[in-house]
């Protein structure tokens, strides 16, 4: 006799969760059908992660009921959730890098009530499961040796081995390259075909439209609605639900005003942390008010170039001139020359979580008046300025003395941008300034960058997002294999051309594509005319 | 050599578990000293070694739970608590000794029994290895047990995960707080056992500060043994060797030209040299000494 198919795989009624100062979920009714891929959409801070963390037992709801396979349940801990077959793949993976794949999978199998097995048996089963899902993984590899995409597969396997039939994926594509995203989608689809329910958290509408059967939109902790893909008439409707209004994308004014040259890099070479030379013979010039978009697939030397320009990374060869003066060798010298740097690692390198907003604000400028008075920091002045910036940028914080750690990702980024722009920089290095931010904050940061450029700051914008590069830049440079292989005025190029260059393909006159050499003489791609 | 190594080995095995699970018990020295004291008092007043051992180990476990309450539940700073315990232990035991026994003669303890592994102990030179107090054998037997549990069981895997990233363990359904209590119970018991060994087996009395920094040496041993019980055993032997050497040199007499003080410094010099050498390639458990709380 077949057991009755439950109506819902999981259903919540009136889930409310409060954190100090904010209601993250307000009376949310949400349901997922068996075998369904259900998108959970919303901008940063909409409450998507909170809701799914409640389902996975990481948080306890303040109010509300959860039904799993139509039965009322209590989920007080991750253990309870695992036993009910709910597994979550966290955005920042929950793997131990130093452990082998098989050890990571083994962890907690007993808690989830799975049968005991030794490492060898488990390793075999991992390989088998992986090939069923259409990929391969070495169960004996140390997780730290794996690429981010592979680590994500380990996460998925881990959750499957724990017997999960309801799988939550928290922004799984944010860490993946486009090719890897396709693979992930195939995996998700095959899991759903096997009858598992997938909750897919994202703020990228395109992905949700491609993958999900239904979508639930959250905004500021409230459920706005649930839509099925088949009944959807326009994407505009969903965008409106997510943001409550329409967003006009910033586009850069069409004309390029070329001012004085303010940045010149001459044949610079830089090594990465492993001592390998990852940038060689890179030369760049940048003029007052110009935005140079640096496009490239991640890991082609962008980070090292940004750090070299900010004098965080020493030059092996060449030199960098800021306003005609040789820069470096310390980040402090660079700061004094008027170079501001928005790092792509906002919490690790940019800001200190345990310091207050005001302390973070003054981290770079405390040596100089007006923030310094005699030998000490003028906190009254600093707090006054911080307060102004909090208001100007609309940073949600408990005031200048609030601890930075309590701010959301978007607000931390605003704080970082606010600090870097406050010094009226001559040159601004912005590395992935909108990475992981929702559309509204992204838009705000874009406006700020454009505003800064029109005030005369030269901006180096490093981004993986081609749309971002195209909408903001005057000039587009393509970096590949540690070299600038294309330098193109925006008006004279197309996204297609840049995208080809990014992966090392160069269109020659015959229309066929050839791989660009990365050593020896490199031909500069000629803009299409 | 084995006898001198034993207290360090016992404490270091416990610390290995503690640190692997992300708990740094700098109070090892204090736990050893207090346990040495209670073991002596209990052993002497009942005239029973067994009661002494139970008292020593019980003291260690009680202190382990107390530390766990402070650093796991209340999330106090592990370094402050540890150092505080060490200082308190020194004062408390010296005071306790005088309160109980005044300044006169200390009572006698029952003689410890030596276990003679019959045929083996008659082998020349090596034979001495098989003629040891029971606790020495116990310490050695615990080495493979600790190794097996740490590297071959779910418990060990969970324990190591706690030191790497407690959030991973938490999301895998492991009760982080409960596990750390269990771990500190083991840490306490082992340091308690070591203290007991000092006062009941190595000598038969209690003396002010009789641990003489062995708790700290054990922590150092743990670190340069890279949290591997087998390495801990080897490193402890090195210390035992240095300590016996110090004793041996005095007894032998032919090296009289070297001042005794220099020889007595050996174990401590080893610690410093070992740690300096290690510092270059050390990789501490990432979550060491960090209290755990779910992120908001």
Oligomer: heterodimer
On the 0 to 100 scale, the average pLDDT of chain B is 88
- CATH domain topology of the largest domain in chain A: Rossmann fold
Provide the number of structural domains of chain B: 1
Number of helices of chain B: 12
Poorly predicted ranges of chain A: 508-529
Major β-sheet profile of chain B: 2 strands, antiparallel
Q: What is the CATH architecture term of chain B?
A: Orthogonal Bundle
Count the strands of chain B? Answer: 2
Annotated CATH homologous superfamily of the largest domain in chain A: P-loop containing nucleotide triphosphate hydrolases
**Which CATH top level class of the largest domain in chain A fits?**
Alpha Beta
Question: How would you characterize the largest beta sheet of chain A?
Answer: 6 strands, mixed
Order of SSEs of chain B, N→C? HHHHEHEHHHHHHH
User: What would the average pLDDT of chain A be, to the nearest integer?
Assistant: 84
Proportion of residues in helical segments of chain A:
25-40%
Tally of discrete structural domains of chain A: 3
Task: Kindly list the characteristics that best describe this protein.
A: alpha/beta; Rossmann fold; 6-stranded mixed β-sheet; 31% helix; B: mainly alpha; ABC transporter involved in vitamin B12 uptake, BtuC; two-stranded antiparallel sheet; globular
Question: How would you describe this protein?
Answer:
- The complex is a heterodimer of chains A (529) and B (296).
- Chain A contains 17 helices and 24 strands.
- Chain A has 529 residues and is an alpha/beta fold.
- Chain A has three domains: 10-243, Rossmann fold; 249-338 and 425-529, 3-Layer(aba) Sandwich (Rossmann fold), CATH 3.40.50; 346-408, no CATH class.
- In chain A, the strands form six sheets. Chain A has a six-stranded mixed beta sheet, with helices on both faces. A six-stranded mixed beta sheet of chain A has the order 16-19-20-13-21-22, sandwiched between helices. In chain A, strands 2-1-4-5 form a four-stranded antiparallel beta sheet, covered by helices on one side.
- In chain A, a hairpin with a 2-residue loop joins strand 21 (475-480) and strand 22 (483-489).
- Chain A is globular, with a radius of gyration of 25 Å.
- By secondary structure, chain B is mainly α.
- Chain B contains twelve helices and two strands.
- A two-stranded antiparallel ribbon of chain B has the order 1-2.
- In chain B, helix 1 packs antiparallel against helix 11, helix 2 runs parallel beside helix 4 and helix 10 (214-224) packs across helix 11 (229-252).
- Chain B is globular.
- The mean pLDDT of chain B is 88.
